[in-house]
Design goal:
The chain starts with about 30 loop residues before the first helix and ends in a 9-residue tail after the last strand. By secondary structure, it is α/β, with parallel strands linked by helices. It has 13 helices and ten strands.
Length: about 350
């Protein structure tokens, strides 16, 4: 792939970002007012800085409910009580030449997962039907690869118009690094959005992958934008990153004007370099969701992979910051039953939006 002209969007003093005046210490006065002040800025400006983002991530657990209340105020303003559902199809599994240390499909993974080439037309259509039946707004077609080959691009060009005509679904494609020509072909066949996660901050990126760079990922997002499609890009929590890494990524996503931000929580799969403990707690996961909401106030924030493992019984609280979920399974791991997600959404007094078909409950 030929790198595009631009590289990382600069963010202010991320490496030195720390909350001022002991902002995250336990028992700090006016904690609730402090978070509501950040919500005011998220709604009215000026936008939060990287330093503000770090202060959210480093908030004490005692401040969690005040923080979530502030995040919910912003979420409610932009999205009301709606939740959008996404359905994921692992259309090509394993066989990837990249060395991403978090991924069970990478060349360095010894995880026992299914490995297969691109699914056939019938299988991809069955996935679209499942997405519609589960009330999903968007059908996410994912392949494991550094970049798509000609056969894979041609397959989407053939099937995407049929899926959209038959089921009324939006299509998000996740196919690795893209050239301008590949992005333009996806746009021309009706792909609405491309997913390509930044995953972490630029300074931490070389710790999780060496076969491509952070700038490669940024350049793919810019190629997608030039082709006229929406951007889906987020990160993974629990890979040894610092709060400053997450803050930098959040500001970068805002600068790129990413429409949809999936927040993943590392599932430390045995056989991957990052298999083992992540050190994640439900409170840390919730603070991260709140940070993404406050830094990207009008963007779709999705609670993505690993939520069942790391948020556990506090999953419902996540929807006070986020407004989107994957329903069903992930790429190589199981999700919770769709019925449990529908029940959680109903119990919160929220409602699913954007779906075309009522699920069989």
């Amino acid at each position: 792939m030929t790198p595009a002209e631009a590289s990382v969007v600069p963010v202010e003093s991320v490496a030195d970002a720390r909350p001022e005046n002991g902002a995250s210490r336990e028992g700090a006065p006016n904690d609730g007012n402090r978070w509501q002040s950040l919500a005011d800025r998220a709604l009215n400006g000026p936008p939060l800085t990287a330093q503000d983002a770090v202060s959210v991530l480093e908030a004490s657990d005692d401040e969690l409910m005040d923080l979530m209340a502030a995040a919910y105020r912003v979420r409610r303003h932009h999205f009301g009580k709606t939740v959008q559902l996404y359905f994921l199809m692992n259309a090509k599994s394993g066989l990837c030449p990249e060395d991403c240390s978090y991924c069970s499909q990478s060349k360095v993974s010894e995880a026992e997962i299914p490995r297969y080439n691109l699914l056939n037309r019938e299988q991809l259509m069955e996935g679209a039907q499942a997405a519609a039946e589960r009330q999903a707004k968007t059908y996410c077609i994912v392949i494991s690869a550094r970049s798509p080959n000609e056969r894979e691009i041609a397959a989407l060009e053939s099937i995407v118009p049929e899926i959209k005509q038959k089921y009324g679904l939006d299509i998000c494609a996740s196919m690795g690094l893209l050239s301008d020509d590949q992005a333009q072909r996806l746009a021309a066949c009706g792909v609405n959005r491309v997913n390509h996660n930044l995953n972490t901050g630029s300074e931490h990126y070389a710790e999780i992958c060496t076969t491509h760079t952070y700038d490669d990922r940024v350049n793919t997002l810019k190629a997608v934008r030039r082709a006229g499609m929406e951007l889906c890009s987020g990160g993974i929590l629990g890979m040894g990153e610092k709060p400053t890494d997450l803050a930098e990524m959040a500001i970068q996503l805002r600068e790129l004007q990413v429409e949809s931000i999936p927040v993943n929580f590392l599932n430390p799969i045995e056989g991957t370099p990052l298999g083992g403990s992540t050190g994640l707690t439900p409170a840390r996961c919730l603070k991260t969701l709140a940070m993404f909401r406050l830094t990207n106030p009008d963007r779709e924030i999705r609670i993505a992979g690993g939520r069942e493992i790391h948020l556990r019984s506090l999953q419902p609280l996540g929807l006070y910051a986020a407004n989107s979920l994957f329903v069903g399974d992930y790429l190589t791991t199981k999700g919770q039953l769709p019925e449990a997600d529908y029940e959680m959404i109903r119990d919160l007094g929220f409602e699913v939006t954007g779906s075309k078909v009522t699920p069989h409950i």
